[in-house]
Amino acid sequence: MIVNLVYVALGGGLGAVLRYLTFLGAGRWLGGGYPWATLTVNVVGSLLMGLLVGWLMRRGGTGEHLRLFLGVGLLGGFTTFSAFSLDFALLWQRGDTGTALGYALISMAASIAALFAGLALMRAGA
C-alpha cells in the first residue's frame, strides 16, 4: 500500500510541475485572453490517458505500478479532465450512452455551479 502511494505521489508531483510549465509556456507563446493552457492540458492529458489505457490493455492489464504512476499520479496531477474523459469513454463503449451523456452534463454543470458557490461563500465571508 505504501509503495502504491509513493508511485501516485511521485507521478502527481511530476504532473503538477508539467501543468505549471504548460501554463507558463502557453501564456508566453499564445498570450492571454483565452484559457489556452487549460485547454492544452485537458486535451493532451485525455489523449495520453487514452494511449496509456490502450497500451495497458494490450499488455493484458498488467503494469499496476505504471498505471498508478502515469495514470493516477502524472496525468492526475497534469489534468483531472483525463480521468473524466476516461470515465465518459468507458460508459460510452459499454453502450451506456445515456448515462455517459448525463455524466458529462452533470459533471460540467455541477462543477461550474460548485465553483460559483465557493466564490459566493467566500465573498459572503464564510
UniProtKB/TrEMBL annotation:
<feature type="transmembrane region" description="Helical">
    <location>
        <begin position="68"/>
        <end position="91"/>
    </location>
</feature>
<keyword id="KW-0472">Membrane</keyword>
<dbReference type="GO" id="GO:1903425">
    <property type="term" value="F:fluoride transmembrane transporter activity"/>
</dbReference>
<dbReference type="InterPro" id="IPR003691">
    <property type="entry name" value="FluC"/>
</dbReference>
<protein>
    <recommendedName>
        <fullName>Fluoride ion transporter CrcB</fullName>
    </recommendedName>
</protein>
<keyword id="KW-1003">Cell membrane</keyword>
<comment type="similarity">
    <text>Belongs to the fluoride channel Fluc/FEX (TC 1.A.43) family.</text>
</comment>
<comment type="function">
    <text>Fluoride channel required for the rapid expulsion of cytoplasmic fluoride.</text>
</comment>
<feature type="transmembrane region" description="Helical">
    <location>
        <begin position="103"/>
        <end position="122"/>
    </location>
</feature>
<feature type="transmembrane region" description="Helical">
    <location>
        <begin position="36"/>
        <end position="56"/>
    </location>
</feature>
<keyword id="KW-1133">Transmembrane helix</keyword>
<keyword id="KW-0812">Transmembrane</keyword>
<dbReference type="GO" id="GO:0005886">
    <property type="term" value="C:plasma membrane"/>
</dbReference>
<dbReference type="Pfam" id="PF02537">
    <property type="entry name" value="CRCB"/>
</dbReference>
<feature type="transmembrane region" description="Helical">
    <location>
        <begin position="7"/>
        <end position="30"/>
    </location>
</feature>
